[in-house]
Amino acid sequence: MKDTVSQPVIEAKGLNLVFQTADGPVQALKDVNLTINQGDFVSFIGPSGCGKTTFLRCIAALEHPTGGTLIVNGMTPDEARQKRAYGYVFQAAGLYPWRTIAGNIRLPLEIMGFPKAEQDQRIERVLELVELKGFGKKFPWQLSGGMQQRASIARALAFDADILLMDEPFGALDEIVRDRLNEEVLKLWARTGKTIGFVTHSIPEAVYLSTKIVVMSPRPGRITDVIDSPLPKERPLDIRDSREFIEIAHRVREGLRAGHHDD
Amino acid sequence: MSRALPVVTVLAGIVAIWYAAAVWMNATWAFDQAERAGQTVTWAEVIPQTMDQARPLLPPPHQVGAELWKGLFGQAVTSKRSLVYHAFVTFKGTMTGFGLGIVVGVLLAVAIVRFRVMDMSVMPWAIISQTIPIVALAPMIITLSSQLGLTGRDIPKAVIAAYLSFFPVLVSMVKGLRSPDQMQLDLLRTYGASDAQTFLKLRLPASMPYFFASLKVAVAASLVGTIVGELPTGAIEGLGARMLIGSQFGEPLIMWASLFAAAILAGILILVVGLIERIAGRRMGVRA
Prior knowledge:
The complex is a heterodimer of chains A (263) and B (288). Chain A has helices at 52-59, 77-82, 101-112, 116-129, 145-157, 175-192, 203-209, 243-261, and strands at 8-21, 24-37, 41-45, 67-72, 86-89, 163-167, 195-200, 212-217, 222-228. Chain A has 263 residues and is α/β, with parallel strands linked by helices. Chain A folds into two domains: 1-85 and 162-237, P-loop containing nucleotide triphosphate hydrolases (Rossmann fold); 95-160, no CATH class. In chain A, the strands form two sheets. Chain A has a six-stranded mixed beta sheet, with helices on both faces. In chain A, strands 2-1-4 form a three-stranded antiparallel beta sheet, covered by helices on one side. In chain A, a hairpin with a 4-residue loop joins β8 (212-217) and β9 (222-228). Chain A is globular. The N and C termini of chain A lie far apart (41 Å). Chain B is mostly helical and 288 residues long. Chain B has two domains: 4-56; 83-283, Orthogonal Bundle (MetI-like fold), CATH 1.10.3720.10. Chain B is elongated. Chain B starts with a helix and ends in a 5-residue tail after the last helix. Classes of the chains: A alpha/beta (263), B mainly alpha (288). Chains A and B meet through β5 and α3 of A and α8 and α9 of B.
């Protein structure tokens, strides 16, 4: 977790994924090579169809690559899932309306068979972590969209996976709520030292959050640029007006544009 | 109050039309009587006579109300003349058939959602089963069950009621069990949940709103099935038997009173199902 020798936790080599559709094969991922180290905050950015979500789903073993190798925590993605290597946050909070907030966070713990007393402890801890203390007994509809998404992050954190995969988690929220949640995610990352994979289509969001920005482009889905961010770990919101920030954002934009010229 | 007004208005309209129809239909008999006696009568004289005939073509509301009152409260509830007694017989049949229908409907739905082969083989037959008129099927079920040595009428009645009530439960439960979207299923896959866990923690709770919606239809269908089961071949108990007696012995008042007793029973059953739905809904976090 320290800045000493960072271990690679996710390694993709020559990864390919071809979907067979009614209109013929679609190359969703082509020759993707990427190494994500312990404690990295990696953003995937690109237009729709660039394979950023597909790549995240491959890491989660929700999709299976048709070529190349993908190693998560030194295992195959399927094995890593069995070992509870990651928590996954979807675009929508997807809380069960018939369970309270605490009940929703309890869901993975029940499935994984944690003892009851430990479940309660963990729920308390993650509720505090996402600043939802005291909301455990509420039902999802009683919470705002931003709070629901925080609850879904708590649910992904509850079983202490090393890796947190987030698929456009704030895409449906308004700018102001999104800014606040971005700050909170950074705090969370600093406190827990988790490795985070984060899919977004917002350039400022990607630059603000990440230590590594992966720029992708569509048809076929591939990586066009990988940017290691020189920004410090401590990032107040107004860092977005700094020169470094604007330079990185510029490079991301250039990368995205280059990908589009290829059409 | 604002909710009661439209209901009361419609009710008043129905009663008014009913009285008008009663005058029109029962007047024929009054005119015939007068003609046979060699008298001429005016409409003004006939109208009162249409209101209290012993065997009216269409009994007016107050006569039905009086007969219903007499049937419900006029004697001990254990009496064979008591509508409460007959309603209870019908209620028992309805509940047995309803329970059976729920069990069969839910089990079939689970099998259909779980196994593709069941979806392809059973579902079409379930739909075809509902195209056969129950009045044609009911006597066959009764004959068949007596052939099998079942002397009582309880079992064939329950089977007929279940035959009608399993279908809405089946259709709704299939839809409900399939209602979770891909994202919710993916979420459980990321936890490495088993099929059984996915079923118990996601599919089953997600199907509950569909389940309760179907129960209201099923309980009404079950009541209709029970009454149809009481109609043919000499049943002596139950609202269906009472209706048949009224019809066969030319006692329209008995028939109409039984009909209304059945309607009241249906209303109570649907209210109770609605109440259970609300209690369950509150426990499952439905917005108040």
